[in-house]
Amino acid sequence: MPVVRSLVLDGEKGELVNSSGRVGKNKGVSEAKNMAALKNHREAERRRRDKINAHLATLRGLVPCNEKMDKAALLAEVISQVKQLKKTATQANEGLHLPMDTDEVNIEKIEGSDGSFLLRTSLCCEYRPDLLSDLRRAIKNLPVHLTKCEISTLGVRVKTVFLLDITKEVIANSAENQELIITNSVRSTLSNILDKVSALAEYEQQLVFPQKRQRISYLDSSCSSS
């Protein structure tokens, strides 16, 4: 019986390999299986190429490029854009004041070259609907000038950072040690607001989880038997 050599598709390797066999009654069955396997392989390759082309088309719409740009140039442009976005995000996060879990008031003094000085103050606490209005009224009553304000939130926490300007005219026309007096006044004002926020939070917690009243019994000594 003659020996027939042909190329068949190896299903595990996904490659065409040499195959030899004797011509007989099973020839038609084996050829049909090989043709079906080859057809399935071609269909899988076609779906893979279509998926890749679809993703590449999406990338072309996200980056500034032209339709004639090949795949390698497109991927290089995407890498460049991702690096630039990462750099921009890093720069944007520099100096960002994120609220912490602890309620606190911080004040930092910044000396000016003309005799004035700045106070970088921050208040971190839970957000309340009247918090910003309380802060605005409090700062308005202080002998300072608000030059910058940054507000950042994280969940129910909020951190407000103020840059307060105390001019040299205010210092010159005020009492001795006015810098210390103003600094302590700002700290006291923000601390009062923080105390108010903490008190409201504690009051709301008591409303949600009320404490059970203790039952107290009184013994009248006059009714006791001797």
Topology at a glance:
Elements: E1 3-10, E2 15-22, H1 27-62, H2 71-93, E3 104-111, E4 117-126, H3 131-140, E5 145-154, E6 157-166, H4 168-172, H5 178-208
Antiparallel strand pairs: 1-2, 3-4, 4-6, 5-6
Helix pairs in contact: 1-2, 3-5
| Major beta sheet summary | 4 strands, antiparallel
Mean pLDDT metric: 76
Helix count equals 5
Rg from Cα: 39 Å
Number of strands: 6
| SS content category | alpha+beta
Q: Which overall shape is indicated by the principal axes computed on the Cα atoms? A: elongated
Q: Regions with pLDDT < 50 over 5+ consecutive residues?
A: 213-226
Short description:
By secondary structure, the protein is of the alpha+beta class. It has helices spanning 27-62, 71-93, 131-140, 168-172, 178-208; strands spanning 3-10, 15-22, 104-111, 117-126, 145-154, 157-166.
